[in-house]
Write a structure and sequence with these properties.
The chain has 430 residues and is mostly helical. Helix content is 59%, strand content 2%. It has one domain (121-427). One of its GO terms (cellular component) is endoplasmic reticulum membrane.
Length: 430
Amino acid sequence: SSHVKAFVDMCNYLQEPCHVARFQKICGVIGSFPVRAKTLDGGESEPDGSGWRRRAQHREQCSDANVHGMQSDDCARPEGASAAAGAESDTVRAKPLRKNSLTEEVGQEFLINNRFFFYLFTFGTELGNEMFFIVFFPFLFWNVDALVSRRLIIVWAWNLFLGQSTKDMVRWSRPASPPVVKVEVFYNSEYSMPSTHAMTGTAIPFCLFMLTYGRWQYAFLFGLSVALGWSVLVCVSRVYMGMHSVLEVITGFLYTLLILAFLCPLLDTIDTFYMTHSSAPLAIVASHVSLGLVAFSLDSWSTSRGDTAQALGTGAGAALATHVNYQLGLLLDPPPSSLPLSLHSVSIHAVVLSMLRFFLGVAVLLVTRMVMKAVTIPFLCRVFGLPADNVRQARQHMRVELPYRYMVYSVVGFSCVCVVPLLFRIVNLA
């Protein structure tokens, strides 16, 4: 029992938001939380809504706070910022990245005293966002290795479903602000345990490493270092953004390793079933839709439910396209006799061809997504008798959000794996 108590105490310690705030301060993020000014009778006045002290009232405290881009009548120095002012040329005033899609929260302003960390961790957190996956998976499928790409999509969809569903069952709130600075607020309405950014940021690189080592020629330490560096960057970025505690990030990392240990040995069986079995289309649709229904029934609307349905829809579309490709003899997998594959024969012609495929294919996917979004939401609103003048409100209904996400992203996934490669053959880019 003493070991259990020590473990619980350690978890409680790692969950404390003060560690997140301390790490943010070390990395040069200073919050602009409202400051309560003392009144003459010793009480406290109401906080300034902007959170910034006035230079006229606190000139003696703000004489060394020449913050880049500030107005002359603003201090631009939040409470506790004097020790981390940094160089004048390297300090900027910023707003959180993207407003919250549910509450339309825009967050409070903050100071960035270290631009390198800001750009580094912004890039790291983007490795777990939608736009990265809509670029990464197609590029890998069209230009590098179709087999690896479609199996990665399987892992991504299942991993995200398990992570988001666990969030909605555990229901832990985001780290408290203050003391944590919300550098990002887009996912602030979601629950936070475990970190699904940490999960996808671990699942993709480590699964990529496991699928390609031995299939492609590269050193073991090189592949392991890339996977570990990728994962650490994404995990640490979530603490920097103020979206997760240290415990939630560690849990997401370990949870994903457990999922990979179970799922990766089954990938060959799953992929073969998708390609060859006559009942595969029915099984794909039934399994992905039923998982979406489970996820949507766990809690009220949030961005996590949409992300889950999006991943499951993409996985269903890609799996159906895999079946169609196999049945039509269009699979792009290299024969076993050509393994292991090598990157040493890359030429300028091959690079140009890859770029042409990439930009043309992504353009097709983006147009497909745009058209499907424009068509499906009004259609579903009419079917279910809901007003279509407010898209954000309409999408909070499960009857709209679930089929909308599935219809849009299953078509996108199908287009990525089947339609776009056919287009490449027509225009001689295959």
